[in-house]
User: Fold this.
Amino acid sequence: MNILVVEDERNLADAIVHIIEGDAQHADAVYDGRAGLRAALSGAYDAVVMDIMLPGMDGNEIVHEMRRQGVSVPVLMLTARTSLDDKVKGLDAGADDYMTKPFEAPELLARLRALTRRRGDVLIDEVTFADVKLDLSTHDLSCRDAVVHLSGKEFEVMSILMTSSARVVSKQDLLSRVWADSEASENSVEAYVSFLRKKLAHIGSKVQITTLRMLGYRLEVLAD
Ligand code: CA
Assistant:
């Protein structure tokens, strides 16, 4: 395993590298947000341990940008803060797990093992949720032998929903992550969710995009 550590407190960054290397894995540290993003996008790492408060670009922005560019490397967020709000923001941005500082070495290693085990030892290029699979390079959504191609925006919305597992994703969040640079409104989100529902039905998946009034959307699996 090759692990990237993004943490501006050098002593802590170096301590984390030392812990990981003591577990017979390789780790590199970078100390600011922009260098962190470049390294995270390089394709050289199997997992990222990342602080939230960083100079240049914060941890949530980095994860958001990684996910936007289709990089699915698992991210463990570190923070000194313990508020639920920070946790929710980090997970919404696309982080996979969250750990509050200070922590003990065995906890860090256990969480990294869990994250990398979930993804396997090879870089994955697809995400799955129940009976559907989304290919991150071809943008094909499949269920068993049925395949349908997703347009750019459909792909982005679906990949956000799938990587959020069963968590609720708000319309506003989808709007800001998928339509960041445009004048789109919540109607666009609704329209794309409706396209995706049709495509899920078309491939015969049991996965449904459920609307939670005032909250947003969540993937659910229809019972038999
Ligand atoms: Ca920091």
Q: What stands out?
A: The longest strand covers residues 207-212.
